[in-house]
Amino acid sequence: MTPRKVLICTYGTRGDVEPFLALAHGLKEAGFDVALATSSRFRAFVESHGVAFFPMSDTSLAALESPDGKTMLEGDSGLLPRITAGIRLSRRSGAIQDGLMRETFAAAIDFPPDLIVFNAKLFAAPHVAEKLGVPAFLGMLQPMLVPTAAFPAMGLPNLPLPGYNRFTYVLVRKSIGSFRRRMNRFRHEVLDLPPVRNGSAVLFPPGAGNIGVLHAYSSGVLPRPRDWPESARVTGYWRLDDGRGYTPPPDLAAFLDRGEPPVFIGFGSMPSGDARALARLAAAALRKAGRRGVIAKGWAGLDVEGSDDIIAIPPVPYAWLFPRMAAVVHHGGAGTTAEGLHAGVPCVICPFFGDQRGWAQLSAALGVGVAPLPRRRLTEDSLAAAIAEAVTNTLLRDNAENLAARLRRENGVKTAVEIITQTLSDPRRGETV
């Protein structure tokens, strides 16, 4: 019997790619023929896991690494410069999305799928599914699109106003709906499909049938709302591996062996206008708190001179590294937050923008992290104080260990694979989101 084919389309930083690669790996193990389409910079990463790769333009990620991208994301850049930089970037986003639309369709032509899984940055994927007559799932690393009265769209503030929570999802969908004109041009010129009539149809075109939404986080971290439709599921986290079998660089292994557990500091793919200053701030905060530290260089370009108490490291699997830390300091990306929660160590989250604020607030509410420390308020003193609290508060550690024990009993990839398998066996799906 010919294996069923699943095309996975995702775009963004490594944190946007790795969970979908984990899903691809799980689908392969279950006997599916799988391909993953994403930015060309991740070719080696994807192919190293034995998954077929279809390249997409790197233009959008390069824009975030540009001076305007760094200004927009830096918390201390000032409001007016950030707005101005954001406007300049938005003028480029339409043309970038046009290219991604065509690349999504090209991948589906080269690898005709029986089902498509996509992330919310690739608007064309559900329309391509409509054209091909195949089911599709939207994979979400955070709750931002399925309306609920239980909480606002992640990243937006909590306000005690009647109807506010549901309204936040209207705002998010309207922002995506601003691409409707471009989407309709793509539907007409490339897909030969009729236009969609409203903004919500940019991600949920009626002609595609009901598009299920798979939320790749744990209900132990954020319970599934009772007012969600059946088609919105919470699967558990999509993790690539648990770190077993990894051999660290000799200098890192020696550093870890010669003292108490250090504190990790890293800001992932967040670009920094002055990476050296941020690295110096991190090192000074560690020393003021009296803690050894591991600083991740990352895309932010953080680097410090090696010393007896601090080491700067290239990319290392967080699943291996974080359990060996006394605490983890990071930007609050969905993937980094997930690895921190699985490690069972307290966290200090310094959100830059978007859903990172939501994960920071949620970690504090769960009692596994200190109060959020936004990038704009990040100083040597504030970070040192947060680190000191994270490593000395025994209640934080107890809560973190208890939550991690629950998360380690879950298998989000397996749950998602079961849902996809069931859908391909019986493509009838529930109510629309």
UniProtKB/TrEMBL annotation:
<keyword id="KW-0808">Transferase</keyword>
<dbReference type="GO" id="GO:0005975">
    <property type="term" value="P:carbohydrate metabolic process"/>
</dbReference>
<feature type="domain" description="Erythromycin biosynthesis protein CIII-like C-terminal">
    <location>
        <begin position="313"/>
        <end position="405"/>
    </location>
</feature>
<feature type="domain" description="Glycosyltransferase family 28 N-terminal">
    <location>
        <begin position="6"/>
        <end position="138"/>
    </location>
</feature>
<dbReference type="InterPro" id="IPR010610">
    <property type="entry name" value="EryCIII-like_C"/>
</dbReference>
<dbReference type="InterPro" id="IPR050426">
    <property type="entry name" value="Glycosyltransferase_28"/>
</dbReference>
<dbReference type="GO" id="GO:0008194">
    <property type="term" value="F:UDP-glycosyltransferase activity"/>
</dbReference>
<protein>
    <submittedName>
        <fullName>Ecdysteroid UDP-glucosyltransferase</fullName>
    </submittedName>
</protein>
<dbReference type="Pfam" id="PF06722">
    <property type="entry name" value="EryCIII-like_C"/>
</dbReference>
<dbReference type="InterPro" id="IPR004276">
    <property type="entry name" value="GlycoTrans_28_N"/>
</dbReference>
<dbReference type="InterPro" id="IPR002213">
    <property type="entry name" value="UDP_glucos_trans"/>
</dbReference>
<dbReference type="GO" id="GO:0033072">
    <property type="term" value="P:vancomycin biosynthetic process"/>
</dbReference>
<dbReference type="Pfam" id="PF03033">
    <property type="entry name" value="Glyco_transf_28"/>
</dbReference>
<dbReference type="GO" id="GO:0016758">
    <property type="term" value="F:hexosyltransferase activity"/>
</dbReference>
